[in-house]
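Thread: NAP complex, take 2
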Amino acid sequence: MRLLVTGSAGQLALSLAHRAGGRDDLEVRFAARPAVDLTQPGSVAAAILSERPGVVINAAAYTAVDDAENQPGLAHRLNAEAAGEAAGAAAEVDAVIVQISTDYVFGGGRNDRPYREDDPVQPLGIYGRSKLAGEELVRAANPRHAILRTAWLYSPFGRNFVKSMIAAAQARPVLTVVDDQHGSPTSALDLADAVLTLVDAWRGGAEPAGGATYHVASSGVTSWCGLAEAVMAECRQFGLPAAEVRPIRSEDWPTRAERPRYSALDSSKFAAETGFRMPDWRASVGSVVRQLAGEAAA
Ligand SMILES: NC(=O)c1ccc[n+]([C@@H]2O[C@H](COP(=O)([O-])OP(=O)(O)OC[C@H]3O[C@@H](n4cnc5c(N)ncnc54)[C@H](OP(=O)(O)O)[C@@H]3O)[C@@H](O)[C@H]2O)c1
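Output below.
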């Protein structure tokens, strides 16, 4: 089965390459810049029509949450229009599209339990609105879709919060980190495992008619401060410099985009339908920091 992944240097694209690497039954190809540029109408569709994959995994996106506030047109183009185009082209070649979406489609108004797939959406910023529009365009363009909402991605690859904390601890003895936004930090490697599990399940006959939306994030809930503390604990264990972490409020760390105070995701529907339960967030932080420490020592 041929998988066509959009982007190639993003966290999820690299995680998919890593996890699918040893599988003889999967041929993973990438539709990436410079050949495929999502800013250009028709670019991603042309790649899909030419490659004729069985599954398109739309991992590319405009992911800079704060910058999106200044570039709403570009965010909408990449996260909504290009996603819809990819879904339409996938439908033309009878391929499933796996669209990656975000916890930031939610507004954070609840804090009694993690969000389920059918909870009302209410994005607070341009990024969340553009990703929500992408979900809607994908559903409309291709009934063979899986929309996977994930959250707070980190990995050994690319730029992310976990790597930023490790780098900051090498430069400063104290890190101040927001403690009043809660969510589900998720390893992109775990998300890649989940995507491949879904592909296998749907190939095996479990594909629901009309598509499906799932939450796919690590289990457990923490704040950015809690995540930073966990990263520092792992740094101490694996011999990397560690800093003291001090909690601050969102008001003390102003950002251009407003973020939900609570956006944890409940991934039990995905577990029930595929048999794949996302790991606890702390265990996955440990394994990614261990890998980064190994690379630093090599
Ligand atoms: N990061 C998070 O915390 C987070 C949280 C929730 C949901 N998500 C969603 O999860 C998915 C994967 O995120 P990620 O963290 O892996 O993203 P990422 O590391 O920021 O990578 C973004 C990818 O998009 C590609 N891209 C950007 N502009 C492009 C353009 N004009 N044409 C073609 N490709 C372009 C990049 O291309 P290159 O390969 O050329 O660099 C890169 O592969 C996205 O849909 C994102 O919205 C992310």
